[in-house]
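Hi there,

I know you've been waiting on this one. I reran it after we fixed the sequence typo, so this is the corrected version. Both the input and the resulting structure follow.
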Amino acid sequence: MQFKQIGDYFFYSEDESINPHAIISAIKNKSGIPMSHGRTSAYEITAGSRNIVIREFMRGGFFGKIFKNIFTSEKRFTDEFIILKFLIQNDFPTAIPACVVYIKKKFYNGFIGTHKISAAKNFYEILKDKSITIEKSHYEIFSEIIDKIYSLHKSGIYNPDIHIKNILIENGSNKIFIIDFDKSVKKQKTSIYDFYSMCYRFLRSAAKLNKDISCFSYDEFQQIMEKVKKTGGTEVNNYLRVAAKFFHYRKF
C-alpha cells in the first residue's frame, strides 16, 4: 500500500473521487455527524461525492486504559482495510473500505474510512428502540448472523470481536451486515474452534445486554445454540459446553 503524505498525515485510498484533504480536515477537527458505529465512536463526513464513516482505532481491555489509541506500527490499520476489501470481493455483506489515515510521531495513531451503509441501524439500537419494527423474528436474525459467521470461517477470516453493536440491519430489505474488523486476521485455514469462538463472542455480547434489552428468550437461546452446533457440523465440545454454562446463568 502506497501512502501519500500530507503534512503529518499519511493517506491511502483506491478511490480517486475521495478528497484526502476533506478526510484529514475532519479528523483534525473531529467534525462531521456523530454516529453509533459498532462499539466505538465514529462520525460521518462528505468527501467529494461520497458519504464516509470515519472511525479511530482504539485499544480495548486493560491496555486500552493506558495506551488507548497508541500503536507501534500502521499494520493494524492496513490489515482491516485489506480484510474488508477481501470480504467485499467475495460478496460478504460489510462496509466498503474507503481509506486509511494515520499519524506517525513517536507512535502511530490511525483511522479507517468506510462507505456509509445507508438506511441501516445497528442491531442493538433496533432491539432497544421498541418503535422500530422488523419483519424477521429475533431467532431468524441470530440464525442468519451465525450463517454469516460461518461464511467468515470458511473464508479463513477470524474476527475475535464480533459484537451485537457491530451488526447492522438495513431498513426495508432487512439485509444484515457485519462491520468493524479491527483485530481480525486472515488465516490459511480456520479451525472449528475459531468458528465456535466467534459465535461465543457474539452471543456473549448479546447475553450481557439481555437484562437491559430483550435479545432472546431462554428457549430461543437453546435454539440458537443448536443452530451453532448444527452449522459447525461437529459434536458439541468442551469449549461450547463452557459457553452454554455461561449463558445458562445469564438473566433471560
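Quick highlight: The two ends are 47 Å apart (CA to CA).

Best,
R. S.
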